[in-house]
Every structure is written in C-alpha cells, then in structure tokens.
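In the design runs reported in the main text, the only information available to the sequence generator was the tokenized backbone. The following block is the verbatim input for one such run; it is reproduced so that readers can re-run the procedure and compare outputs position by position.
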C-alpha cells in the first residue's frame, strides 16, 4: 500500500490530525469566547458605531514602597488611556474602590520594590482590574501590562549600561501536548490540518456573522452567491494562515511571534484599502497594495455580497489571492521541513 500524501494512510492521517486540531480549538474556552465575540459582538459594535476604546480609565495606586522607582512606575499611567485619581490607603480601600466602580484599576506595588530592582531581582507588581465591562477590562490589563513591561526593559537596560545585571526571568516550561516531531508525520501532515481546522472555524464564524448579525440586525443586502463568498473566504483564510505559520517558523519564541504578527497584519490592513482607498495612496504604496491578500479579499467579498458579481468578474482577485496562498504555504513547508529535518 502506498504511503504517499493521497494514499489511504495519508488521508487518514490528515483526517485524524484535523480532528485533533479541532478538539484543541474547542477545548480552549477563552479562545472560543473570543471567537464568538469577534463574529458577533465586535461586528455589532463596529457596525453600530459604538466606540470601545480605552480613554481616561480611573486608576488608583497602592504604593507599598513609596520610593523613586514606585513613583516613576505609577507616574506612567497617564492620559489618554489612564486617569490617576490618587492613592488607595490600604488593600481593603483598593477593593472598595473597585467594587464601588470609582476606579477601573488599582496598581499594587509591593514593598522593597526599588531595593529589589537595584539588586537585579525579578519583581512583580499587581494590576487589579474591574472587568464588569469585559472589553474595557481587557484593554486596561493589556495597556497596563505594556506600561509595566516597558518600564522593566528600561530598568534592565539602565543596569546593563552601568555594568550590572538586569532582572532575571526564568521560564518554566511544562509540556502538556503530544510531541509531533517524533511521529511518522510529514511536515505537510502536521501543518495542513492546522490550516483546515482554523478555516472551518472561521467559516462557521462568518456564517454566524452573516446570518446572525449583519443580515437580521443591519439588513445587509446579499445580492451575490453565498457559496462564492465562502469560497473566497476559504482562500483568504488559507493565505493568512500561511502567513501566521511563516511567522511561527521564523520566530524563536512566542513573544517574537506576537511582534511578527503585528509587523505582518498592520501593513496588510493599511494597504488593503479598508481605511484609505487605493486610488488615494501614493504610487509606491499602490504598488505594495497588490501583495496584500486582504486587498483582494475585500474586492472579491464586496463584489459578491454588495454588487452581485460572480467569480467570472472577480477571477483576477481570486487568482492573485490563490497564488499568494500557495506561494506562502510553499515557503512555510520548505522552512518547516528544514527545521525538522
């Protein structure tokens, strides 16, 4: 029996791996909540014009150190994102402020904060957040983590410049998943099911968005072929999933994956024409827009749903998006094969 990609064994491996990826996705409760919100609540808020940006969130400080370093850190929580309202006198007072809705967050700085920083030790601060509004609570914690993280990097850089050692961070890694590298699976059989599983989930989310939000709540006219729209969506997800896998093969850790994702997604969004029409861009940017898969997806999706255009009229966008997807996935497969070979 042939053990090639299209053999019975190869197809069974793809099916089993796809099933595994779907199980992992649906077992992640936080991811599923984010998924449902992205295709329902987020779309509703965007379409209805409701702003959910973090602006002037009230924050109190529980300073247990009262040192230059603690005051410096607390002083970084400033407008437009935060609005300092003073100090909480005690932990119970901090809890009361949060419970009464007087503040969105409390920055809890421990004692000996400055001393431990000077020694190069790892120090933790606590940001207590009122998550009654889950979106604003998430934004508050995210912005707060960025501020604290940036402060930690600056302190470490200053110590290294003075000849000292920066705060030490140790990673304790525990493996809770199957080790795929030691299985008789090819790189394609490992990576492609991840793309298939994510594509199925996003297609389900798109169906919820179309028939559960945009259609009944905003009367979105669906003049074109719905199957054609889902075909175009499948091609777009395949392409962007390839970009995500490419970032994973280039990066060495999760933090680098996050940074590369921003580097990839932001230009793709800016060059898509969603914010600024392609015609209004400088000539050199118009040239770069043609390598953005989101540009082709918007052109095809708007054409199908709002104008009733068929694939015969949109073949150039579909072909370009397909070519980008195949090219990116081929590069990913080559890099992954080298890394695992």
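Verbatim output:
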């Amino acid at each position: 029996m042939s053990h090639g990609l299209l053999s019975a064994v190869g197809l069974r491996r793809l099916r089993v791996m796809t099933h595994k990826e779907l199980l992992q996705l649906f077992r992640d409760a936080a991811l599923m909540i984010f998924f449902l919100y992205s295709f329902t609540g987020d779309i509703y808020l965007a379409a209805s014009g409701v702003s959910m940006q973090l602006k002037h969130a009230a924050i109190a400080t529980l300073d247990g150190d009262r040192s230059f370093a603690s005051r410096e850190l607390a002083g970084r929580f400033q407008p437009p994102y935060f609005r300092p309202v003073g100090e909480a006198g005690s932990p119970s007072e901090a809890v009361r402020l949060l419970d009464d809705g007087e503040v969105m967050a409390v920055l809890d700085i421990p004692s000996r904060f400055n001393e431990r920083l000077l020694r190069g030790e790892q120090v933790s601060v606590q940001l207590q957040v009122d998550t009654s509004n889950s979106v604003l609570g998430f934004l508050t914690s995210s912005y707060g983590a960025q501020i604290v993280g940036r402060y930690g990097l600056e302190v470490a850089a200053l110590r290294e410049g003075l000849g000292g050692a920066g705060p030490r961070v140790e990673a304790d890694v525990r493996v809770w998943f199957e080790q795929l590298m030691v299985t008789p699976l090819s790189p394609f059989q490992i990576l492609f099911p991840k793309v298939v599983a994510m594509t199925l989930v996003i297609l389900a989310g798109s169906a919820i968005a179309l028939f559960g939000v945009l259609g009944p709540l905003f009367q979105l006219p669906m003049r074109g072929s719905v199957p054609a729209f889902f075909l175009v969506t499948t091609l777009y997800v395949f392409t962007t999933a390839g970009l995500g896998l490419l970032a994973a093969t280039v990066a060495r850790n999760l933090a680098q994956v996050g940074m590369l994702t921003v580097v990839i997604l932001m230009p793709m969004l800016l060059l898509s024409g969603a914010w600024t029409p392609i015609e209004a861009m400088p000539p050199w940017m118009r040239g770069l827009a043609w390598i953005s898969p989101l540009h082709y997806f918007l052109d095809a999706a708007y054409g199908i749903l709002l104008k009733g255009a068929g694939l015969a009229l949109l073949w150039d966008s579909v072909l370009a998006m397909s070519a980008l997807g195949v090219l990116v996935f081929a590069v990913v497969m080559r890099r992954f094969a080298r890394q695992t070979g």
